[in-house]
Design brief:
The complex is a heterotrimer of chains A (106), B (416) and C (300). In chain A, a hairpin with a 5-residue loop joins β3 and β4. Chain A has a domain of 67 residues: 2-Layer Sandwich (Alpha-Beta Plaits). In chain A, 14% of the residues lie in helices and 17% in strands. In chain A, the strands form two sheets. Chain A has a two-stranded antiparallel ribbon with strand order 2-5. Chain A is of the alpha+beta class and 106 residues long. By secondary structure, chain B is α/β, with parallel strands linked by helices. In chain B, the strands form four sheets. In chain B, strands 4-3-5-6-8-7-16 form a seven-stranded mixed beta sheet, with helices on both faces. Chain B has a six-stranded mixed beta sheet with strand order 13-15-14-17-18-19, with helices on both faces. The relative contact order of chain B is 0.11. The N terminus of chain B is likely disordered. In chain C, strands 3-1-4-5-7-6-8-9 form an eight-stranded mixed beta sheet, sandwiched between helices. Chain C is built from twelve helices and nine strands. Chain C has 300 residues and is α/β, with parallel strands linked by helices. The mean pLDDT of chain C is 96. Chain C has one domain: Thiamin diphosphate (ThDP)-binding fold, Pyr/PP domains (Rossmann fold, 3-Layer(aba) Sandwich). At the A-B interface, β1 of A face β10, β12 and α9 of B.
């Protein structure tokens, strides 16, 4: 099958999620959130959200509770480092999933 | 009849048009003005500089409603044009020699990005050493980049070619280089019929870009493209680099027909038809053809007159389009000849004159193959006289008569 | 009025799954920049890490129109967009030229100088990761004294070029420095630049690079903070020639906070691991002089 169905005559790309694929597969460390410490979760109202603010990958949802899209999270660890409440821990990617809180999103 | 000379120009008012006696540079600037270019960016270089000055004058007096960006280099000039063309503006630039070489990566870029940039190349010798005079090495050195390259033989053709270039470029989405000889044409005055703006507008509709730069439909243009085809999010398999380049070559092949169509349309509106891919002089029964591009081909018409006077059935084949190389047209045009003498004002160093070489390559496919002899002429502004073309041709005839088939290129009036 | 970092707009213009390294501060900065521009911009991008962020044909990870351009031509290409938009009568879009330190200070400086001299109506943003990172960390004129790169394996022998100062010499009406470790300061500067139509605006952003500067990705925001707290990077604005410190740098000046010693910044980064004592002292001296000059300028 050729590429004639593609109507481009020059390189002209369109936006889509996962441009390079599932970048979650790059990870060696995975963020795990302790909602008992997360300030927004504790107050149950918009607060802090520094993890959302500093995430380079746009995978943290500014919501209560915070959700991290692990399909694309690269495991950089900035959210854990910047969380003022120490609510995020980076765990080894091959650690058991049972150690995660059930509200983590994959 | 002629009136007194005013500021170096004379006007002959005709019922349909004005005729001005102007330089090739002014003809180029006027062609761009009539094409209602919207963005101009050019950096001065001898012998192109008057083009930039004339265009600035047109813009600053309001004769031309255009954005003129006084860039700081030729590389930036073509960069401005590429970007402005991408957003949908009709663009123009001009340069020569080292200026053309300086924008070299952008020449490749414009072609790969499929942008209808029109550039006047005022043919000048390449350094080193420095030489501001005419030869065709500059545009020839860029012949592989994927631009359409056309040669003007006189100032009328310069103006006409610029206007036609926009129509061609905006039909096939390939940039066009209009080449004309520095000083010989650029600085020499000739009568040029100036088309009426309304007729040019009729001939040249507004530019419709294929590129999209719109926040409502965000795209990423000319990004990294890998070797192999890859699917986009919708599943359509999109081109790899090789397929995009295939499309450029395909467009250049199609442009042979487009160039001919555009010339026909131009002729029907403006009443001037001077050849599309090739032009000829006394070619009908010619057994002996003198071939060249640009003003040297016009000089060859005087040589042909002399050869005819001496009893030879000689004719001129002028190359109007060099890229894409009009192979089929050349095979047909040379099919009755015994000898084609090619005069190249440039050299593919380590090989031979580019036009001569390309002609031989085209004729390889033909059943009827005349002998082809090549001469290098006029490098660095060395004057070329009709009698020298005659002498070279007679020399070639002698070689043929002595059955000397294999020969190196001759050099016209090289005094080494 | 300064934006509270908790109130940055939520709309995103970047999509997950791009090719940047984990912890890329350019990515963080780009999020804020695009929020400040409200996505109503066209960006020209030369060969650089940003090219890679934008992705490979036929997909892109960014929701604004982007024109990839040849390496030296960022500013000239942006000039072309500006001219084209003006010729077409489209006045509601901001043109942003966005290059790295290589594409700005080195190979791109000619085009930038020309565009600035013409007072071209665009925002030029330099993201400064202090080396040619996209090609694997070769030195640029932005690399600090003593830093190791692949082409300065024993440490760079010259100080970094001061691009904002060069822009000031061009009379650029709005110049600012920023760092994504201070999101609100960065956001506000881009917003301000966006509203200053009809002139050249230059923003120089420090973007610490984990693989290039050799620190763990989790420290990316910390390193940026330390660059400001040590005076290695100073947050300021120059509006029509009037200089003022902003954000953290301003509060440090106002509270007469001593600069943190460079060792606290450099200790986190492998690129300074083998810096000689002599170079370290020279660099500290350079940093102190620049900071004092800024303090003096501010007090005028």
């Amino acid at each position: 099958m050729g590429t004639r169905d593609c109507k481009h005559i020059s390189a002209m790309a369109s936006p889509a999620v996962g441009e390079v694929g599932k970048t979650g597969e790059w990870r060696q460390l995975r963020p795990v959130i302790d909602y008992s410490k997360c300030l927004a979760a504790k107050k149950n109202k918009p607060h802090c959200f520094l993890c959302w603010l500093y995430c380079p990958e746009v995978v943290i949802k500014k919501a209560i509770p915070i959700e991290i899209d692990l399909t694309y999270c690269k495991g950089c660890g900035i959210c854990a480092e910047e969380c003022p409440a120490g609510a995020i821990t980076m765990v080894a990617e091959n650690a058991s999933r049972d150690q995660d809180r059930p509200t983590n999103v994959e | 009849m002629l009136h007194g000379i005013k500021t170096g120009r004379q006007m002959l008012n005709n019922e349909n048009h004005d005729t001005l006696i102007i330089t090739g540079n002014e003809a180029a600037a006027t062609g761009a003005k009539l094409s209602q270019v919207q963005v101009i960016a050019a950096y001065p270089i001898t012998p192109q500089s008057p083009v930039t000055e004339k265009l600035c004058q047109f813009v600053e007096t309001g004769e031309l409603n255009s954005e003129y960006v006084t860039v700081e280099s030729e590389h930036s000039a073509l960069s401005v044009c590429i970007a402005a063309s991408s957003i949908g503006a009709r663009v123009f630039t001009a340069t020569s020699a080292n200026g053309l070489a300086y924008m070299c990566e952008q020449i490749h870029w414009a072609a790969g990005a499929r942008l209808p940039v029109v550039m006047a190349c005022v043919n000048r010798a390449m350094a080193a050493p420095w030489n501001v005079l005419n030869d065709q090495q500059d545009s020839m050195s860029q012949r592989d980049a994927g631009w359409i390259q056309m040669f003007a033989r006189d100032n009328q053709e310069i103006l006409d070619l610029i206007i036609q270039a926009y129509k061609i470029a905006e039909t096939v989405y390939v940039p066009v280089m209009v080449c004309y000889d520095g000083y010989i044409l650029s600085h020499t005055v000739m009568p040029v019929e100036i088309p009426e703006q309304e007729k040019v507008d009729q001939f040249l509709p507004p530019y419709k870009p294929h590129t999209i730069l719109d926040p409502a439909d965000p795209r990423n243009l000319n990004q990294v493209t890998l070797a192999d085809p890859r699917p986009e999010a919708s599943g359509t398999i999109c081109h790899g680099y090789m397929e995009l380049r295939y499309l450029l070559q395909e467009a250049l092949d199609h442009s042979l027909e487009t160039i001919t169509d555009v010339e026909r349309q131009f002729a029907s509106i403006f009443g001037r038809s001077r050849g599309s891919l090739l032009w000829d002089y006394k070619l009908e029964d010619a057994e002996l053809i003198l071939m060249a591009a640009g003003s040297i081909a016009t000089e060859a018409t005087a040589a042909v007159d002399e050869l005819r006077h001496q009893g030879y059935k000689a004719g001129v084949l002028g190359l109007r389009v060099y890229r894409p190389f009009p192979k089929q047209a050349l095979i047909e045009a040379t099919s009755q000849a015994k000898l084609v003498v090619v005069f190249d004002k440039s050299l593919s160093y380590g090989n031979e004159g580019p036009i001569c070489c390309d002609l031989k390559s085209a004729l390889y496919l033909s059943n009827s193959r005349p002998a082809v002899h090549g001469y290098i002429a006029g490098l660095g502004g060395r004057d070329v006289k009709a009698r020298e073309l005659v002498e070279a041709t007679l020399d070639s005839i002698r070689c043929l008569d002595n059955e000397q088939h294999v020969r190196k290129s001759g050099w016209i009036n090289c005094q080494i | 009025m300064e934006t509270n970092i908790l109130n940055l707009p939520e709309q995103e213009y970047m999509l997950p799954g791009n090719r940047t390294c984990a912890g890329c501060t350019l990515s963080i900065a780009y999020r804020y920049i695009l929020k400040a521009l409200e996505g109503k911009a066209i960006i020209t991008v030369p060969a650089s890490c940003l090219t890679v962020l934008h992705g490979m044909y036929p997909t892109t990870s960014v929701l604004i129109p982007c024109l990839n351009v040849a390496f030296p031509s960022t500013a000239a290409s942006a000039s072309g967009l500006v001219a084209g938009l003006k010729a077409l009568g489209k006045s509601d879009l901001t043109v942003v030229a966005f290059a790295g330190d290589g594409g700005t200070n080195d190979i791109g400086i000619q085009g930038l100088s020309g565009a600035a001299e013409r007072n071209t109506d665009f925002i030029y943003i330099c993201y400064d990761n202090e080396a040619y990172m996209n090609t694997g960390t070769q030195r640029s004129s932005s690399t600090p004294l003593g830093a190791k790169t692949t082409t300065t394996p024993t440490g760079k022998r010259q100080h970094a070029k001061d691009m904002p100062h060069i822009m000031e010499s061009h009379g650029v009406p709005y110049i600012a420095t920023a760092c994504p470790s201070y999101p609100a300061d960065l956001y506000d500067k881009v917003r301000k630049a966006k509203d200053k139509n009809g002139m050249t605006r230059y923003i120089h952003i420090s973007t610490p690079c984990a693989p290039g500067w050799l620190f763990p990705s989790k420290d990316a925001v910390t390193v940026g903070r330390l660059s400001v707290e040590t005076g290695m990077f100073i947050l300021y604005e120059i509006e029509n020639g009037t200089f003022q410190l902003t954000g953290k740098s301003r509060s440090m000046a106002e509270h007469e906070t001593k600069l943190k010693p460079l060792a606290s910044y450099m200790g986190l980064q492998g690129r300074f691991a083998n810096i000689s004592q002599e170079r370290l002292e020279e660099l500290q001296h350079w940093v102190n002089s620049r900071w004092n000059a800024c303090l003096e300028r501010t007090s005028q």
